[in-house]
Specification:
This is Putative outer membrane adhesin like protein. The protein is mostly beta strands. It contains no helices and 17 strands. The protein starts with a strand and ends with a strand.
């Protein structure tokens, strides 16, 4: 029986749920079986490894998995050669590739005398402009100024995102930093300038 699948690689660690993404290409599988049973581990129906339950029936193993989706099952063979039915599949999605750096494409000013879109380095009189950009599809995009988060959203399936700033900008130059975090917890940074 497969009890847990654990990600022990930063930035996100802990027990995985069925279908969850991870950046750990060697998650730790742990389970229980009959004492000294041979545990065969299958990835998408193909045997990839064997291990043995200890004298208390516990076992652990860390298979090496390539990027992509893996449905893991296992069987246990006792000393008499009896083989258990395959376990229920547990799917883990390995993603060791950091997301593409997010891009702040433009801002939208909809107040005052200067309205319309503006780019990096241009002046706006909108203290709470909308910023648009692109990143990896479905990544969580966060905007920061001086280390303080000023907006967050989730990119769409096409990677596009829009954030209405939640902290008013003061007069003067501002440097906005964007981060994108994918489902496996990997983060990528980008920097864009904005004047007010």
């Amino acid at each position: 029986m497969l009890n847990t699948v654990t990600d022990d690689q930063l930035p996100s660690t802990g027990t995985l749920t069925n279908g969850q993404a991870t950046n750990d290409p060697q998650p730790t599988l742990a389970g229980t079986a009959e004492v000294n049973a041979v545990i065969r581990i299958y990835d998408n129906g193909v045997e990839i490894a064997q291990t043995r339950a200890d004298e208390t029936g516990n076992w652990t193993f860390s298979p090496t998995l390539a990027n992509g989706s893996h449905t893991l099952t296992l069987t246990a063979t006792d000393a008499a050669g009896n083989v258990s039915q395959p376990s229920t599949g547990f799917t883990v999605v390995v993603d060791t590739v950091a997301p593409v750096a997010p891009i702040i494409s433009q801002g939208v000013d909809d107040v005052g005398t200067l309205t319309g879109t503006f780019g990096s380095g241009q002046v706006t009189d909108d203290t709470l402009p909308v910023l648009n950009g692109t990143s990896e599809a479905n990544a969580v995009v966060r905007l920061f100024e001086n280390g303080i988060q000023i907006g967050q959203t989730t990119a769409g399936a096409d990677g596009s995102w829009t954030i209405q700033l939640t902290t008013a900008l003061t007069t003067g130059p501002h440097t906005i930093t964007a981060t994108a975090t994918d489902a496996a917890g990997q983060r990528q940074h980008a920097i864009g300038g904005l004047c007010h």
